[in-house]
Specification:
With 280 residues, the protein is of the alpha+beta class. The protein has eleven helices and eight strands.
C-alpha cells in the first residue's frame, strides 16, 4: 500500500464526490456538447490517485453515469491505453497512458518551475510539506509538492485533490479571487454543502480576514484532524490567474506558533516573489 493510501483512508474520499454532484453530464440542450466525450472524461476523473481499482458498478455510483454506459466507456478507454483491467478481480485502474495527457501541462507550467526550489528549501529546512495548487472544480489539485520529512502523514503527491471549502490552500485560493468570482464560487459551494455551508462560509471569511491582516491563513485540525496548515494566495498582475501555496504538517511535529511566527511569514514572502511571474 502506498503512502497516499495510508495517509488517506477510503472514508476520507467521500467529499470529493461533490465534484461529480455539481457537474453532472446528463442530457444537455446544447448541440455543441458531446455527452459521450464528457462521460469518458468523467470516468477518468473518477480515478483519484487515492481511490485505487474500481469496478464498473463503483464508477457508475461515483459519477452517476448508468452502468451500461460505464461498461462501454471502460472498455473503450482500456482499448485506448488509458485504463487497464486487473486479472485478479476484473476491476479497472489508470494505466501509464494517462500520463501523456497531464505531462504537457506540468512541464509547461512556468510558475511550477520558478517556485519549486524555494518550496523545497522551506520544506527541507522546516521538515514540513509545501504544496502549489490550482482549482479543479470544487477542489484544489496539487501541481507541485515538496516534503521535508519522509515520515510525515501529510505527504500528498502531485495530482492529489482536496476540498476548497475545508482546506487552508482552498480558502487562500478563494481569497485571491475577485469579489464577483468569489461570490460565484460561494453559490456553487452553497449548493454542494447544503446545511454545512453557513458554518463553512464563516470559516472561509475568517481565513480571508487573516490574509488581509497578515498575508496568510491558518487551518488547524479541520481538513484533517491530525494536521495544521498555513496558505497564501498567488494572484497574477492582471488578476486573471489565481493559485495558492501551502505549508504544513502533522500536529505532533508542527505547532500553531511555528506556523504563525515562522512558516506563515516565510510562505508569504515566497508567494510575493513568485506571484509576479504568474500567468506569464
Amino acid at each position: 500500500m502506498s503512502q497516499l493510501h495510508e495517509a488517506l483512508p477510503r472514508a476520507a474520499l467521500k467529499p470529493l464526490v461533490l465534484d461529480f454532484e455539481s457537474h453532472g453530464v446528463g442530457e444537455r440542450d446544447d448541440r455543441k456538447f458531446i455527452t459521450a466525450l464528457a462521460r469518458g472524461l468523467e470516468v477518468l476523473r473518477a480515478f483519484q490517485s487515492q481511490t485505487g481499482r474500481m469496478s464498473n458498478k463503483e464508477i457508475s455510483e461515483l459519477t452517476n453515469i448508468p452502468k451500461p454506459s460505464i461498461t462501454r466507456l471502460t472498455y473503450t478507454l482500456s482499448e485506448m491505453g488509458y485504463l487497464q483491467q486487473s486479472n485478479i478481480d476484473g476491476k479497472y485502474e489508470l494505466s501509464a497512458g494517462i500520463l501523456s495527457l497531464g505531462y504537457p501541462l506540468l512541464s509547461g507550467l512556468a510558475i511550477r518551475h520558478l517556485a519549486h526550489d524555494q518550496m523545497a528549501e522551506l520544506a527541507n529546512s522546516g521538515g514540513c510539506s509545501v504544496a502549489l495548487g490550482a482549482r479543479d472544480r470544487l477542489s484544489i489539485v496539487y501541481v507541485d509538492e515538496c516534503c521535508g520529512n519522509s515520515s510525515t502523514t501529510l505527504r500528498l503527491d502531485i495530482g492529489a485533490r482536496i476540498e476548497i471549502a475545508r482546506s487552508a490552500i482552498g480558502r487562500a485560493w478563494l481569497a485571491g479571487l475577485s469579489e464577483e468570482l468569489r461570490q460565484d464560487m460561494y453559490k456553487q459551494l452553497d449548493i454542494a454543502y447544503h446545511t454545512e455551508w453557513p458554518e463553512l462560509r464563516s470559516r472561509i471569511e475568517d481565513a480571508e480576514s487573516q490574509i488581509k491582516e497578515r498575508g496568510f491563513c491558518l487551518v488547524d485540525q479541520e481538513w484533517r484532524k491530525d494536521t495544521r496548515t498555513v496558505s497564501v494566495p498567488l494572484v497574477s498582475n492582471d488578476g486573471k490567474t489565481v493559485m495558492a501555496l501551502s505549508c504544513g504538517g502533522p500536529t505532533f511535529s508542527i505547532s500553531v506558533a511555528s506556523l504563525e511566527e515562522e512558516f506563515g511569514p516565510r510562505l508569504r514572502h515566497i508567494g510575493e516573489k513568485i506571484s509576479r511571474f504568474l500567468g506569464k
